[in-house]
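> example.struct
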């Protein structure tokens, strides 16, 4: 009998114990964009989700940072390709020959970082799904006007359609987390170019939400040249959570034009 892996608090491990929930999460990739793609699972632990992904006849690879979990997976799933390493440091370009889907029961302590990392490979990853802290999942899927709408919401929704699928209670984990979990799915939208400077777009979004209680006129003052007519426009009197992705794109375009005009004077 193979010894089970002990959950490690430092790695944010909460092992799912409900097989019906694990199956439902695996099935989130059975969508139009994800049905035929190879799959990379992040943080498989003892393979609770992995076993159902393997049943779907998908080309599957997993990445795991915990050496004890890696040893367990090698013993229990000898045919599974296990990459030992840190997803946040992994070069994803060489994982598969072409596009692939990403799934996981993501560690709470790095889930936001994981999704920022996925954005770097958005053209290679048309579908992302899995489970994370409910609050973060809700934030990713929130729309303008919501109190939880923020940086992750805007940056991810610029490139993905984000769906909150279902909530998972604390009592189906070992050890039980102190919060509920949420399962979501992101599918790549048709956007290929934002129509603005993408780096400046990220800066505008992050700077705006960095002082979310202030109006954009105040929070973005470091980005807009003093005396610019843009500062008097109506959009600058709004707070960041009031702007849609399209409005952030338009604002970024205006800021870029204002900077260029100032530099040419």
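> example.seq
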């Amino acid at each position: 009998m193979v010894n089970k892996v002990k959950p490690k608090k430092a790695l944010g491990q909460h092992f799912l114990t409900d097989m019906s929930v694990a199956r439902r999460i695996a099935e989130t990739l059975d969508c139009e964009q994800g049905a035929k793609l190879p799959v990379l699972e992040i943080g498989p632990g003892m393979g609770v989700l992995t076993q159902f992904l393997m049943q779907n006849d998908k080309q599957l690879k997993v990445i795991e940072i915990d050496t004890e979990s890696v040893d367990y997976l090698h013993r229990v799933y000898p045919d599974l390709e296990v990459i030992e390493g840190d997803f946040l440091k992994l070069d994803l370009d060489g994982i598969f020959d072409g596009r692939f889907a990403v799934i996981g029961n993501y560690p709470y302590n790095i889930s936001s970082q994981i999704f920022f990392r996925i954005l770097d490979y958005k053209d290679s990853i048309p579908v992302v799904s899995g489970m994370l802290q409910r609050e973060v999942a809700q934030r990713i899927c929130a729309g303008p006007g919501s109190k939880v709408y923020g940086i992750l919401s805007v940056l991810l929704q610029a490139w993905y359609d984000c769906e909150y699928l279902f909530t998972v209670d604390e009592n189906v984990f070992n050890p039980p987390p102190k919060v509920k979990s949420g399962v979501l799915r992101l599918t790549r939208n048709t956007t290929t170019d934002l129509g603005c400077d993408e780096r400046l777009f990220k800066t505008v979004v992050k700077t705006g939400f960095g002082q979310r209680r202030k109006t954009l006129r105040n929070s973005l003052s470091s980005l807009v040249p003093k005396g610019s007519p843009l500062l008097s426009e109506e959009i600058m009197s709004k707070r960041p959570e009031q702007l849609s992705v399209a409005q952030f794109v338009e604002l970024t375009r205006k800021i870029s034009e204002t900077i260029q005009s100032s530099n040419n004077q």
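> remarks
The chain has two domains: 9-188, 198-264.
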